[in-house]
Amino acid sequence: MKDIVIRGDEIDIERLGFSKAVATKTYNIFKIVSEHKDFIGKAPSVIMAASVYLACILCSEHKSQEVIGKKFDRSHVSVRNTYQNILDSRILVGKIDGITGGEK
Known about the structure:
Layout: E1 5-7, E2 10-12, H1 20-35, H2 44-58, H3 65-71, H4 76-89
Antiparallel strand pairs: 1-2
């Protein structure tokens, strides 16, 4: 995560090829997830990668789990599992635009 800069309410991931919209959505997701008890102790880089993956989906800027995993030195399996854990935890329902209670 050495190329990731978190300042104030932004995450600078544009240099990794992601849009400003994805960066903003990623910050909001990452902040909620990283502070949730179910994710305390989990590597920040894998939470960030899964947050980027979810943000890309929500912003219709689809990137594969493999591509995102490589940018964060994580396997696509780690990205997929963490992404699924985030959705299963339902902690983003009502907090992030585009996340509803029916998604699994």
